[in-house]
């Protein structure tokens, strides 16, 4: 039997604690909703972790055992400890997949891995978002139609200050007149990163089947590959070298 | 159980018929050597097809049932019927994976799909080739070391006249002083294409474990994905449109 | 003084002949409107050519002298002679820039150079298009704001069946609910190609300052570079090679 | 007359002070050799700056006036002040070009902008390097042949831990058996970055005409473009939005 993919669904988890409306929408937190869906897949082994746990739930052991980490954060990006951020980034470069969700665009790990500001335009009016598939042959859109529609979402608009994705899979249309690169694939060292736009805390986005499917697909795409161990440093010649 | 990947190993198969030396190296043809290896994988269903079969072995039924097609051609590119080439290309755009091997760089389907001349420098001296991995997190290099070495190969050198690959996974070093983009990934419509350099007919390249592993990995990477059916043509508005 | 960029503005020119409404909008043809603007730039030397001239106005001499060719076609793609198409493509691969405008997406040269179907969704309702800049540091958007707005345009929607652009500079939003990759840069051999979406014949798009500016910028970006002459074919080793 | 490109040639400048052999090769420092060449171009306005000047010679005014910054560092990466690094990176994102030379691959600004380790294999034996052009139509190779050869250089080998370049223009061959991505173009926010491999301090690389030409070309390519000012933050809808 194939090895399972070990997923850690990370969530800041503060909105759900401090805001009654959000708590009602996500009584088990957004991480709970995402994890519940992912657990229905036999090839996944799923756990959750949140900001307010010791070490944000991301101990060395947890990170080591994690094949793919999903990340949602917003109001408390600044509370994430820098040493944990460094460990998360190091694990990504080592091969761990990272799925960055919605406002995670401004999280410390994503910004550090991208090297740009990752800023954007935004507006919270609950307008319609339609996410179009640009690459119908990409594994993250398996089982998806030509677009998915989300009745009410926060708007994110370009210019999204990211490096051009290695593969741009999804672009959003917003009722208010903007577009956004919503599904962005990156290779960084041995790791893979997928940024996926939707998921404002005040809407029911993480119950949307299309959204959940894409997250599950992205976890499979981003799972580590048994590629070569990379050696860096001084290196002896593989061939006879003549020098003066 | 997961659906098997149906692979058709296509070979021109002329060198093996007309040249005693080649026949000795590949008594069952290069397609035979490749297919034999691929058949050792339980997730693959493998058949072969060659130029001199009716319809080059690529009838509509065969193409329809093929998830991934591997292509080796050289001395008889011109003998491949244009109607078959059109069908192969159409199937790729529909989602069939295509693994183009060595001198297949100059085959009709590859050139048509690339839109460039696909020409290059070459030299047959049996020199050493060392293929370096640039993207250690890419699935086509699973189980491979930092490089693979082929003791005797034909040289291919840059400028290789192809569109820049969507992902460049491998680059070759040649003893005579050249470099070459040896492992090139492309998305084209719903299909995926992998160009893989090694495999001159007069060497034992298709018995090389590293080479074979990469071909097998590439077949998995290029296998079709159940992405959206794409509609093209006149399209009604999804939103109310006000015009003058 | 720097060498001028020789631009040939090519137009099918049929709508302007056969349709009174179009003739009124573009009394000198769309090529006339574009050329008039380009001629206001001192670094450009501009001529026009149309389908109904001998050799479509694209004789060997004209092509040889052309640094950048802009291409508009629609109702008569099929009337473009294949030998001329081959010459245009060959010149692009040799280094000539190609700016493909609007319905030129389905022209013979563009489809041949892309290797895909280049099909898309479309709708003619005269709805609003807003073209967003994704790469604010790219030379084709010099002098442009964050977006340009076109009050009335034909809609083109994704999935646009093209290879992922080397650089995606612009994405359109349409009132009816679609998005589209509107500014796409490609390197093909020594040539550069820019696909630019707007320009339906029944609107005044080629009088829009932002649209014209982008076309001018694209001409500069796509102008040939004195890069190396590429040799292809048999090649002697540059280093001493030991073989068995 | 066209606006001049203001170039600041930055150099750590320590090897030239502390090592007699290096001092002999570059009596005016490597920055001196590079600046001397760049000054022969009428479209450039060139100054130099070094680590041991106040603020490393990179005051706010200097950075503000700099269109393109070239960066060479090696033994003293750690001595570069973090606040200056932050300012350099911010200026790049604002539009300033950055040409990173040789061991600058491990400089603080480059690593921060890339988000990866930027590590590699290396060996100092004075072996031959041959740098091949992959993209003959790219402006950084104007006036260059199919390759440039450097008789004696330090080896850098893959896996070079960088994000895949937006455009890969050059790949090196080394006598000892390695390959390396030697000319790498990146867009980051409004800025452009070019990594260019050659230039070990103990060889006469910055007197090599081909190397110098590529640096000059890269300065032109990386010069700022008058693209849109990007607004980030809360954004009012451009269209009437209906929400529940």
Pick out its properties.
homotetramer; 244 residues; alpha/beta; nine-stranded mixed beta sheet; 7 helices; 30% strand
Task: Explain what this protein looks like in three dimensions.
The structure is a homotetramer of 244-residue chains. Helix content of chain A is 25%, strand content 30%. Chain A is α/β, with parallel strands linked by helices and 244 residues long. In chain A, helix 5 (82-94) crosses helix 6 (108-114). Chain A is globular and about 70 Å long. The model of chain A has no long low-confidence stretch (mean pLDDT 97). Chains C and D meet through loops of C and loops of D. Strand 5 of chain B pairs parallel with strand 10 (233-234) of chain C.
Summarize, please.
Chain A is of the alpha/beta class and 244 residues long.
Which helices and strands occur, and which strands form pairs?
The structure is a homotetramer of 244-residue chains.
Chain A: E1 5-11, H1 15-18, H2 20-25, H3 29-38, E2 44-50, H4 60-65, E3 68-72, H5 82-94, E4 97-101, H6 108-114, E5 121-133, E6 147-157, E7 167-174, E8 179-188, E9 191-196, H7 209-222, E10 233-234
Rg of chain A to the nearest angstrom? 19 Å
Number of helices of chain A: 7
Which residues of chain A form runs of ≥5 with pLDDT under 50?
none
| Strand portion of chain A | 25-35%
Largest sheet of chain A: 9 strands, mixed
With strands numbered from the N-terminus, the spatial order across the biggest sheet of chain A is 2-1-3-4-9-8-7-5-6
Global structural class of chain A: alpha/beta
Mean pLDDT reading of chain A: 97
Largest interface: A-D, 48 and 48 residues
Helix and strand sequence of chain A? EHHHEHEHEHEEEEEHE
Distance between the termini of chain A: 57 Å
Strand tally of chain A is 10
Helix content of chain A: 10-25%
Shape, principal axes of CA atoms of chain A: globular
Oligomerization state: homotetramer
